[in-house]
Amino acid sequence: MKKQLLSILLVLVMVIGMIPVNAIAEDSATDSSQTESYGEFTDGEQVISDMIEQKGMYAHPRIIMSEERFAKLRESIGQDSVTAILLEKLRGEAERHMNEPVCQYEIPDGIRLLETSKRIQRRVAALAMAYNIFGDEKYAQRCYAELEAACNFQDWNPSHFLDTAEMSTAFALGYDWLYHWMNDEQRTFLRQNMIEKGLTQVMEDYEDKPRTRTYRWYQDYPGDNWKLVCNGSMSMAALAIGDETEAKDIASEVLTYAYKESYAFVRRAYSAKDGTYSEGLGYWDYATYYLGLYSSALTSAAGTDYGLADHEGLRKSVDFVRYMSSNTPKSFSFGDDRESRDTGWTVLLWLAEYYQSYDIASTRLKKIENDSFNYLDLLWIDEEKTPDSASDSPTDWGEVGASNASFRNTWEESGIVTALHAGENVYKYHGHYDLGTFYLESNGARFFTDLGNENYELENRLYSYRIRAEGHNTLVINPSQELDQKEGAECLITQFGSGNEAYAVTDLTAAYEPSGAESVVRGLKMIKDRECVIIQDEISLSAPGEIYWFAHTKGEIAVADDGRSAVVTVGSEKMWVGLISDGGTFTVMNAELLPTSLPVPNQTDNSEYRKLAVHLTDTKDTTISVACIPLKEGETQPSWMPSVKAISEWTAQTIEGDVNADGAFNVADVVALQKWLLAVPDTKLANWQAGDFCNDGRLDAFDLCLMKRELLKK
């Protein structure tokens, strides 16, 4: 019993350590790289030495795949499994490429070779895989033809270095996976081009030599997804040829530069607090799948990734993706994301393996059969490690000091789901002026949505509709030609409660100060047993002014005669939306710039959207509270009406497992839990494994929820 209590107390110490402390800064570094250690990493020379020790000289394949891995996949041919479905898709993909001409050097927008690089990568990966799995030499021949054609390109467009990076990934996979099929002359030809058009070019970026680049990505701080795409790609190429005499020195240098900046960037980009990725959901996928390729290549070649991906923020980012997606799952498309993007991403398979938490993979495994072929699935799929069901996961996600929060009443598709986006306005890193925006989905129908990305080459893009606050589900105060939210403003979650009345609050004052705001507070609440979502704004201006409240939809909007409510229809689903605060009426507006905004020609067509709007004039202090309630079949209005309560009085009411019933899980709860645990009979703890209720080898928010639930039962 004493040993168990000691273990329990140790876990409680860990729990206390997980509780947010606002005074702790996440990253105070000001230079572009860390000066301290980088996990277990020493330098690129050591990586190549480890690779040779691990695999032997000239041992291939070693970039993510191996002979054993290919053999294991071959065993699934013809079976009744998801892997077998993937293999048949692979065969079909390879056959399709047999009848296509090789790619040509094309820069259609005058800037990017990127689509060609990506296309070559997909072709090379599929064809080289098909050769290794099915054994037909025609696939190897067609694969080499693609690589040979790219070798004859004038360059891989290093001015836009993503293009060179993605092409280098293609060559890393092709060189490694076809190594034993190729002859010496073919290997030498590919290797020389990898050095000349790839590794030599990236060294000029690392050393900041005076070359024309659209973006000095390596020197940028804190940087963006390019850090992982470019460093990961070039490291894979270096690993593929690093034991060759003419490549060893430059490969060692590339591995050193790439690892240090990638290691530091992972710890900057994935918030250790809540896993939020700095560039939003869509770029999370792009950056993270290249991190997955990079980590997997290091591990397969050298036996370890030296701690590259061993970061709590990365692990938590799985929750960021899952909770900021709906139950379908579709993304909450804030920032430079695509509207309602499917988030059942392949990289979840890698994260499941890396963290030995296989429930992470469940979302992707459910989607493979109906999705188009993606070679990344075959890199990471392992059906023998059956994912656990995640249907018992907490339905609320967020915390004070975080950038986002989300709520749902169930994980079933029939449920109602909503989320609030706060954080920081950073346009350079794929941000929009969208602090306070929200989305709302019910029974799979997206009632209020963000419109998504705008063309990067658009002149005056910064002032375009989709970038400005007026193009999001948030407020506009005293509109003008200036930006309608402040660049660099940081507005985090200031209140959070989980339970039947779950809520999140953010103080948006900093975003609207240039518009004359003295105080702007937005709260989003879900009342679960009533299936109601409330969006409430409490606004105080320095002088009477003009205020807009916006919510965008693709649905049909029917406003009541008195303007105090509306019904939004999406397909066969209907949502009643009502103003429950005093004053104001609803109107319907087109998704286009206000007359006061700077005209921006050639924007993306937004004609399929409308927005529900509230427009107040000559207003100094006001509350705008809007209730959204799904209507059941035959209903024209809801059977009940919520009342308005000041945000300062919001509580979560009943919270499953909240020991102190204060609407939050905090230090006081930990103290109370400690008292509970000390009083729990020995036999009651027989199945409790050091606090790990999910049996996934870690103590996390899921475990805390279940821990509280079990304690209250006892």
How is this structure best summarized?
The chain has 18 helices and 17 strands.
Explained architecture:
By secondary structure, the protein is α+β, with helices and mostly antiparallel strands. It folds into three domains: 2-15 and 666-713, no CATH class; 49-380, Alpha/alpha barrel (Glycosyltransferase), CATH 1.50.10; 396-638, Beta-galactosidase, Chain A, domain 5. 35% of the residues lie in helices and 16% in strands. It is built from 18 helices and 17 strands. The chain has helices spanning 2-18, 44-55, 67-74, 82-98, 114-134, 137-151, 161-177, 184-206, 226-241, 248-269, 281-302, 312-323, 347-354, 362-367, 375-380, 509-512, 667-679, 701-713; strands spanning 396-397, 404-408, 416-421, 423-424, 438-442, 445-448, 475-477, 490-491, 493-497, 501-507, 517-527, 532-553, 556-559, 565-570, 573-579, 586-590, 610-630. The strands form three sheets. Strands 7, 9, 10, 11, 12, 13, 14, 15, 16 and 17 form a ten-stranded antiparallel sheet that branches. A five-stranded antiparallel sheet has the order 1-2-3-5-6, covered by helices on one side. Helix 2 crosses helix 10 (248-269) and helix 4 packs across helix 5. The radius of gyration is 27 Å and the shape is elongated. The protein starts with a helix and ends with a helix.
